[in-house]
Amino acid sequence: MTASTTSGRDAELEAARLLLAKLGVSPAELLQPSAARPATPTFREYLPVVRGAVGPGTARAYSSYWNRIEQQWGDRRLDDVKPSDIGGLVEQVKANRVVRRNGRSGRGTAENLIAALRCVYNHAVADGHLSKDDNPALKVAKPRRLPSTRGALADAKLAELNAAAATSGNDPELDALLLRLHTETACRRGGALALRPVDLDEEQCLIRLHEKGETVRWQPVSPTLMQYLLQHARERGARPSDQLLRYRNGTSVTRRRYDHLFDRLGRLLPWVATQQVSIHWLRHTTLTWVERNFGYAIAQAYAGHTDGSGEAGTTARYVRAKLSEVAAALAMLTGEPHPMQ
Questions:
Q1: Are 216 and 208 contacting, i.e. CB atoms less than 8 angstroms apart?
Q2: How many CB atoms lie within 10 A of CB 173?
């Protein structure tokens, strides 16, 4: 061995010693056998961990899919599933889905199943059970989402809807209140169900909405709707921190009330059943009207959208609407002056 080779070897060894010292590792530790990596958990073992780590909205959306995954793959380890296995399960679930009149060949079922699996694997990666590159759910493409069939209702159709709700059923007062609440605020169903008496600001005619993504926002309402909400809470025994919307016997309203309401409206108004109209159509209706009359920025604020993406979302950062402008739009919509004007 030449002197130059020896010198180079010594330099490499010295560099290695410096690196080990920096890492706090001794040469003796390198000679010790590495600890055996614990076995990757099975779906049956790991799904309860995921269920306990997500919020109630996520759990509700994915629960039926997780049940199906556990039924099919309960004893399989997370690292034992390949993308082709996921593709096969997707096709199986699509073939056995409940076919609804507004279904789209199982595209929504496929999308939700893949999303439910990605949620499981994202937690497994975060917990160190797998590397990101070993995540098979990321290697399966979701089906392209088709444009929504929902749209804005014409004034005459909206009037029909309200008249039918207010003159039929076992609690027309509740149903009429639901439709007015969603029409005025364009809130989501979850926001309405989370509303409490403590969320009502009577003086400024504002309600505090708790909606998806744990967002919280104040939304203007008309003085008339505010009085209806306060009266409803008093008459049906809602305490300040209780859910506001209630049946006559004081029981809290659930999502099922919306299903029953639009089932009934579909029997009374055939176009409601034909077009599969739901409460979310009122959000489309109000926001379309606001955008046409007051512009995109105010419609975005009215909707409670804060996570805009793309060019329009970037521009919205600079033209963000104020709450008083949302109140002005509401005042024109309802024909009532608002305290924030």
A1: yes
A2: 16
Tokens read off for 212:
């998806």
Higher pLDDT among residues 147 and 192, named by residue: 192
The tokens of 229 are what? Answer: 């909400």
pLDDT > 80? residue 80: yes
Is 70 exceeded by the pLDDT of residue 36? no
Name the architecture of domain 43-139.
Orthogonal Bundle (1.10)
What ranges in the chain are assigned the alpha helix state H? 3-23, 27-31, 43-53, 56-73, 83-95, 107-126, 155-166, 172-185, 189-193, 223-235, 255-268, 270-275, 280-294, 296-303, 310-316, 323-334
Which of these CATH numbers, 3.20.20.70, 1.10.10.10, 2.60.40.60, 1.10.443.10, describes 155-334?
A: 1.10.443.10
320 confidence band (pLDDT: 50, 70, 90): confident
- Does pLDDT of 253 surpass 90? yes
Q: pLDDT of 169-228, one tens digit each?
A: 999 999 999 999 999 999 999 999 999 999 999 999 999 999 987 789 999 999 999 999
Spell 142-166 as b/e; 16+ CB within 10 A means b: ebeeeeeebebbeeebbebbbebbe
Per the structure block, which two tokens stand in for 181?
Answer: 């609440």
Tokens describing residue 151: 């749209």
Closest CA to 268 of 182, 166, 149, 154: 166
For residue 305, give the nearest of 316, 294, 315, 295 by alpha carbon.
316
DSSP helix/strand/coil, 252? strand
**What's the average model confidence in pLDDT over 63-85?**
94
Please state whether beta strands 215-220 and 206-211 pair in parallel, antiparallel, or not at all (unpaired).
Answer: antiparallel
* Best mean pLDDT range from 20-24, 142-146, 231-235: 231-235
Token representation of residue 279: 């409460």
Asked whether the beta carbons of 212 and 55 are under 8 A apart, the reply is: no
